[in-house]
Design goal:
By secondary structure, the chain is mainly α. The chain folds into two domains: about 5-50; about 60-155, no CATH class. It has five helices and three strands, in the order αααβαββα. The protein has helices spanning about 5-25, 30-50, 60-85, 105-115, 140-155; strands at about 95-100, 120-125, 130-135. It has a three-stranded antiparallel sheet, with helices on one face. Helix 1 (about 5-25) packs across helix 2 (about 30-50), helix 3 runs antiparallel to helix 5 (about 140-155) and helix 4 packs across helix 5 (about 140-155). It is globular and about 50 Å long. The relative contact order is 0.14.
């Protein structure tokens, strides 16, 4: 049986516990099922993406969360504005962007971050190639991905490829 660093077990376990708490609406009576779900999610995460030593720093995590919150609000306002227009003026499409993050958890976190921001949906991640479905291809999506990529890199202490 493989041994995993305690720090990796703690971070992932805490993440899955917080996610469960949010999904359960903070209900204390949900933790019977929640503990089993958190344990299974932790086991699956360790099997599918073993820790490689790139754990987030506290400062990097705080900066990433501030960025994510600000982008979520900004994106929500943009999508609401588009929805309230009398005539929708969208230009949806799929973009392919080559990522500069090294292989591993950083790319996965970036793809999932982009899923949670309004107007973008990660539809494929193969090596360094990320495919995104976007609501409006006229927006500077590639530049926005680069900004998110830098935040993820800082959070994990990773170097971006040139």
């Amino acid at each position: 049986m493989p041994r995993f660093p305690l720090r990796a077990l703690f971070w992932r376990g805490a993440l899955f516990a917080v996610l469960w708490w949010i999904l359960a609406g903070g209900r204390a009576d949900s933790w019977g099922v929640g503990l089993v779900s958190v344990a299974l999610a932790l086991a699956a995460s360790l099997a599918l993406l073993p820790p490689r030593g790139n754990l987030p720093s506290w400062r990097g995590l705080a900066e990433y969360l501030a960025f994510f919150l600000a982008q979520s609000v900004r994106g929500g306002v943009q999508v609401a504005g588009m929805a309230l227009r009398p005539r929708l003026d969208l230009h949806p499409g799929v973009l392919e962007i080559m990522l500069r993050l090294p292989d591993g958890a950083g790319r996965v976190v970036l793809a999932n971050t982009l899923n949670l921001l309004p107007g973008t949906l990660s539809v494929g991640l193969e090596g360094a190639r990320l495919r995104l479905h976007v609501l409006d291809t006229r927006r500077p999506v590639a530049e926005e991905v680069r900004v998110a990529e830098r935040h993820v890199a800082r959070m994990f202490g990773l170097r971006l490829a040139a």
